[in-house]
């Protein structure tokens, strides 16, 4: 069976101030063409279909168009909700839509009930694990502590239990939206840290033939059978080095697997440029970036006049301007943002405690801070679901 694995469409999202709807529509065209021309038997979409719980009408219309076109091809599609989606909204009408071959899996309680498709070698069971917010689903899965590893492990126990009761030789595919250990994140992914731990080990997914992951925006191979497709389009300059693709996966009769990356059309390349304003305007080696979306970091010791307007004369698609004067690390002029770069909320809070009283928090106080941050994230998740 030939699968096309994609995720993280983020319909409705812009790239800085540049609208992306046309590029997203171009991706949908490319998806449909790939399905038709490459003999795809099933499409899997591993979450974050939309960029927010209540997407703009234009994004909903594009999603509707994608579903109609996939259904018209007669190729089944299995889709889960991600942490950006409203699971309830995405799952409205799932029963009816399923009759057209579009299978929406947004209910955590149903993760052990697969969509079963057939090829000439027998059954392939597709298990959809929508994004599992630990604080909201721990009771459903009967886990004592709300954590990503605990709830995913419990969900996978249901998957394995169902698979064990199926005919010998049944192959299996799991769709999941999570941060798996070994994956490389980017700036455009929403933080899903709980209890100080965001990632789960790949071994959670042992026992299935292929795990189609969503959440991280870079295409990645965690193991041969556990992969991220990445987002089809860039959504932050941290993705400048990404090659945007989908996975074309061939699942053999015995569960053997081969995978090929299929490139996605990207409207413009991304470029992250650094230097003084005069150097950026004069350097002939930068000519290749003149039509790119540009993030410019200026290192001038004094902020120059009208930098954005001057940059736009050479790089008309400059979208982000950062000031980072070259200074010694101990220079008091080093920006607060630069001192905090790469530090978690927990680390920043612990540093603040140390600054105020002269000593950092002990282990008990660290646990209190961690619980407080988890409670805030859980409250945000509840409000998102209720919207």
UniProtKB/TrEMBL annotation:
Stored CDD domains: MPP_Mre11_N
Residue span, Calcineurin-like phosphoesterase domain: 1-217
GO process terms (BP): DNA recombination; DNA replication
InterPro entries cross-referenced by the UniProt entry: Calcineurin-like_PHP, DNA_Repair-Maintenance_Comp, Metallo-depent_PP-like, Mre11_N, SbcD, SbcD_C
Recorded GO MF terms: 3'-5' exonuclease activity; endonuclease activity
Record flagged with keyword Phosphoprotein: no
Residue ranges of domain Nuclease SbcCD subunit D C-terminal in the record: 267-355
Keywords: DNA recombination, DNA replication, Endonuclease, Exonuclease, Hydrolase, Nuclease
Any single Pfam family the record assigns to this protein: Metallophos
Keyword RNA-binding: no
Coiled-coil residue spans: none
Family under the similarity heading: Belongs to the SbcD family.
Record NCBIfam families: sbcd (TIGR00619)
Subunit structure: Heterodimer of SbcC and SbcD.
Protein task: SbcCD cleaves DNA hairpin structures. These structures can inhibit DNA replication and are intermediates in certain DNA recombination reactions. The complex acts as a 3'->5' double strand exonuclease that can open hairpins. It also has a 5' single-strand endonuclease activity.
Protein name: Nuclease SbcCD subunit D
Species of the source: Streptomyces actuosus
Lineage of source species: Bacteria, Bacillati, Actinomycetota, Actinomycetes, Kitasatosporales
Gene name for this UniProt entry: sbcD
């Amino acid at each position: 069976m030939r699968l096309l694995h994609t995720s993280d469409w983020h319909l409705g999202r812009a790239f800085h101030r540049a609208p992306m709807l046309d590029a997203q529509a171009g991706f949908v065209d490319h998806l449909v063409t790939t399905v038709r021309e490459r003999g795809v038997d099933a499409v899997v979409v591993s979450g974050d279909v939309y960029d927010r719980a209540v997407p703009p009408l234009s994004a909903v219309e594009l999603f509707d168009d994608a579903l109609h076109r996939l259904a018209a091809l007669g190729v089944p599609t299995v889709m889960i909700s991600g942490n950006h989606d409203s699971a309830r909204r995405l799952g409205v009408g799932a029963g009816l839509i399923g009759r057209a071959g579009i299978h929406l899996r947004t209910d955590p309680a149903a993760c052990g009930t697969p969509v079963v498709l057939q090829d000439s070698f027998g059954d392939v069971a597709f298990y959809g694990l929508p994004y599992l917010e630990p604080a909201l689903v721990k009771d459903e899965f009967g886990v004592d502590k709300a954590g990503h590893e605990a709830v995913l492990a419990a969900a996978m126990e249901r998957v394995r239990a169902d698979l064990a009761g199926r005919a010998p030789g049944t192959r299996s595919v799991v769709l999941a939206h999570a941060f798996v250990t070994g994956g490389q994140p980017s700036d455009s992914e929403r933080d899903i840290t709980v209890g100080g731990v965001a990632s789960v080990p790949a071994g959670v997914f042992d026992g299935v033939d292929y795990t189609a992951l969503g959440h991280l925006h870079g295409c990645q191979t965690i193991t041969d059978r556990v992969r991220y497709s990445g987002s089809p389009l860039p959504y932050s300059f941290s993705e400048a080095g990404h090659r945007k693709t989908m996975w074309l996966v061939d699942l053999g009769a015995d569960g053997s697997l081969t995978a090929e990356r299929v490139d996605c059309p990207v409207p413009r390349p991304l470029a992250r440029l650094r230097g003084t304003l005069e150097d950026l305007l004069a350097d002939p080696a930068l000519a290749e970036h003149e039509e790119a979306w540009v993030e410019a970091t200026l290192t001038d010791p004094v902020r120059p006049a009208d930098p954005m307007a001057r940059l736009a004369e050479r790089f008309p698609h400059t979208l982000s301007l950062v000031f980072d004067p070259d200074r010694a690390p101990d220079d008091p002029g080093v920006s607060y943002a630069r001192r905090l770069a790469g530090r978690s909320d927990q680390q920043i809070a612990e540093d603040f405690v140390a600054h105020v009283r002269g000593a950092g928090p002990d282990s008990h106080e660290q646990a209190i801070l961690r619980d407080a941050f988890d409670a805030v994230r859980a409250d945000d998740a509840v409000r998102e679901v209720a919207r």
